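Bug #77: duplicate submission created two jobs. Keeping one. Sequence:
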Amino acid sequence: MRVLTGAEPTENISDEDLAALYAPPAGEAFLRVNMVSTVDGSSTGEDALTGSINNAADQRVFAMLRTLADVVIVGAGTAKAERYSPIKGTPIVLVSRKAQIPQSLQGAPEGSVYLATCSRSDGLESAKEILGADHVLELGSHRVDLPLLKQTLAERGWTSQLCEGGPHLLRDLVFQGCVDELTETTVPRLVAGAYPRITEGAPIDVPLRLTMLLEDEGTLFGRWALGQ
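Kept job's structure:
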């Protein structure tokens, strides 16, 4: 892995180098979204999962970003499809308007899984029974107030926030002005087909600014700033 732009040229990047290259700013709420796609724009392969397109280099960066995060945010649909399990030392916050909790995260250790949902959700009471009322965040009445989610997590001391998708949540976070940075892995593959992109939903048009680019045997890792 080597730096192409945004920092001093470096070959054979160590884990310590990688942590420094991806370090979030200290002392402020910072929401980073991490996604992966093929060169032709697909965010999954034929099994509809990211695991069918990512590689060892992407998994290395993925793991590093988790170690730098105070909290991991993920859409409940993505957590269900990707069969999320609790992350040691880092709480997961599910985002679900319907207050859905994937089976793989039910019964998780207390405090390892939270839910951000709506006060009018039909699944609210069931979610409280599964996770405990203290772990269910009611943020908005009919849809999840994402700026309030970012603020609420920061007030708990979770200022380094990592969102792992999915495409609808990324689009909504960008639309509501919550995202500070997109980190995106582009794997050197073409898959064609009618697979999803890293964003889905109503059109948005948001400029990005490249702040760093790494390369590892054709796999590209970009840090893109938003709203600056």
